[in-house]
Specification:
Helix content: 25-40%
CATH superfamily of the largest domain: Aspartate/ornithine carbamoyltransferase
Number of domains: 2
Strand order of the largest sheet: 7-6-5-8-9
Shape: globular
CATH topology of the largest domain: Rossmann fold
Strand content: 5-15%
Number of helices: 12
Structural class: alpha/beta
CATH class of the largest domain: Alpha Beta
CATH architecture of the largest domain: 3-Layer(aba) Sandwich
Order of helices and strands: HEHEHEHEHEHEEHEHHEHHH
Bound molecules: N-carbamoyl-L-aspartate
Number of strands: 9
Radius of gyration: 21 Å
């Protein structure tokens, strides 16, 4: 593992499988009456959120706390960022707080990379979503969910990865960091990814991505093992990308009738927040085939694994042993 997690594209297959297997081990902690491990005691994790978030922020907080780290939550609203403070000055404050890891969500694509490579801070940087670029921990929790649902947990399938599984990602691909990270990670793990969207919401240069593109959802659904619905990201749209909401739902929304075209074993995913009635109907969102809530729970295990692997200098997967007690004996050097 590298020191930072900025992009799913940086993960090798071995890195990704190590994170997924570690998350599987750590998920067991959630089943215990006391959901805490002492592994990151004395370490400080800062959640630095410049953009709104519900699931990602509380899940990083829960993950850090379950590993006994100290957590500082920083949101741009109500901080000096709203007075115009720069990322560099904010970074200097975090450094003064002794942050061992900074989990950053930012509206600008590239902000986490800047933080990681600028030399402004000494700790690890974890990208929790940057602009329309990447959201690697979301892709990891999606892969974890797929592995559990379709492959049967660690060791299942070909080496526990997603070889040959067909994942269809539907909707606002253009503005979606979730789609971008998933295309990279899922293909690294052996899955075949197809993007389905109106032509106006397909990014320029998609030909160079390791996936197929289709404009016809009904044709792709019967060949899918999982269908990932994306939120239409109105806050990132400066123009009209489709005629009306009704027209969008009619062609690219998932309702009960469409879901019936999917193979029986296939699941419906959504990263949240959902626009019910737009990209997904309430009937589908609330059905047993929709993994949206399960994805949120799995997000805690994945973020525990990422923080654990980045901060404890751990090697292979496994529930970590308790942190070593502070040294009480002096080294020969000191005794002299
Ligand atoms: C996504 C995000 O913020 O990129 N949500 C999330 O992290 N759970 C997707 C979205 O906002 O639509």
């Amino acid at each position: 593992m590298q020191r930072h997690l900025i992009s799913a594209a940086d993960l090798t297959r071995d890195d990704a499988v190590l994170i997924l297997d570690t998350a599987e081990e750590l998920a067991r902690v959630a089943d215990r009456p006391i959901k805490k491990l002492p592994t990151l005691r004395g370490r400080t994790v800062v959640n630095l959120f410049f953009e709104d978030s519900t699931r990602t922020r509380i899940s990083f907080e829960a993950a850090a706390k379950r590993l006994s780290a100290d957590v500082i939550n920083f949101s741009a609203k109500g901080s000096s960022v709203s007075k115009g403070e720069s990322l560099k000055d904010t970074a200097a404050t975090l450094e003064a707080m002794g942050a061992d890891a900074v989990v950053i969500r930012h509206h600008d694509s590239g902000a986490p990379h800047r933080l990681a490579t600028s030399g402004w801070i000494g700790g690890s940087v974890v990208n929790a979503g940057d602009g329309t670029h990447e959201h690697p921990t979301q892709a990891l929790l999606d892969a974890f969910t797929l592995r559990r649902r379709l492959v049967g947990g660690p060791g299942g399938g070909a080496g526990g990865d997603l070889a040959g599984r067909r994942v269809t990602v539907v909707g606002d691909i253009l503005h979606s960091r979730v789609a971008r990270s998933n295309v990279h990670l899922l293909t690294t793990l052996g899955a075949e990814v197809t993007l389905v969207a109106p032509p106006t919401l397909v990014p320029i240069g998609v030909e160079s991505w390791p996936c197929e593109v289709s404009y016809d959802l009904d044709v792709v659904l019967p060949k899918s093992d999982a269908v990932m619905m994306l939120r239409v990201q109105r806050e990132r749209m400066s123009a009209a990308f489709f005629p009306t909401e009704r027209e969008y739902s009619r062609r690219y929304g998932l309702d009960g009738r469409r879901m019936a075209r999917m193979p029986e074993h296939a699941v419906v995913m959504h990263p949240g927040p959902m626009n019910r009635g737009m990209e997904i109907t309430a009937e589908v969102a609330d059905s047993g085939r929709c993994t949206a809530v399960e994805q949120v729970g799995n997000g805690v295990s994945i973020r525990m694994a990422v923080l654990y692997l980045l901060l404890s200098g751990a090697g292979p997967a496994g529930v970590p042993a308790p942190a070593p007690a502070p040294a009480t004996t002096r080294s020969p050097e000191e005794s002299k």
